Amino acid sequence: RPRLDQHLGERCVRMQRIDIKELLARFMTDVIGSCAFGIECNTLENPNSQFRLMGKRMINLPKLKSLKVFFAMMFRKQAQALGIRYNDKDVADFFMNVVRDTIRYRAENGVRRDDFMQLLIDMMQENGAGAGESLTFEEIAAQAFVFFFGGFETSTTTLTFALHLLAQHPKAQRKARKCVRSTLAKHGNEMTYEAIKDMYYLECVIHETLRLYPPVASIHRMTSQPYQLPNGEVIPEGVGVIISNLAFQHDPTLFPDPLAFKPERFEDKTFAKTNPSYLAFGDGPRMCIAMRFGKLQTCLGLAMLLKSYTFSLEDCDVDRPLLIDPINLMYGPAGPVWLNVERYVEGSKSS
To answer: What residues does heme bind to (predicted)?
Structure first.
């Protein structure tokens, strides 16, 4: 946590124009690298770290590769028969070697950490587990890879959009900052888990950002049994289905004034849970397994930044609203996202 504040503090004593998307991607790479692999990536200071470079290659695919991945998602058996793979071999080998080296190092040196990797290692070494209950090395590597892939890019995209929206809406930014600072005052100015959970308005900002810009804009499922639609038509078993949560969340009959940024929609804490049209994390037994972790790290990043910095758009040559990248697997902004960043001063016009 101190590294992000120190990294920005050295650059933003006065107003600076920063590509906030790149900064947040590097920060989230460090967070996920530590939590998923137990490795200090130090990507904030070294933007060309191996984790950052591999993360870019996982997400920023060439057009032909994106088409192949889409084909593989919709036609799994045919893709397997054709040998289509999601990741290039050297990317997959990199993560396999990281997991292998981490397991070996901890075993040889008696190292334990309170992180996701340790949970997986314990499950692999679990004594007395029945058939199929303990994890294999390949399963650990797959889970760590999914944790990294699903964690750093989705949170980066959400934070980027949230800060851009707050820069467009100074009143909401001031309210969010007041929420952060007043909550921290009640918690001894410590950024604890309890303090983060108490920042109710930040959660509203994040939910509204996800409603407008869900990083995963369509949900892919496969029918496990025949399903009858309201119009009487039946979808057979084993058919791939695409559900556009973006369309649901922009539907004016479900969300009045749907293109407006209104965090207050979510001030009723049950709204996000009980509204079936809000699908930012999916739904059902296959909904996002890391929802709580993702919301926590996004809230933490937003709280850290709003506590000490103000964000604005003046003189930034950015598109309003941001252009969406049509090739990226995530529903995210195309190219850099430039914001003016300045250290917050109590009593200033940003207060």
So the answer is: 288
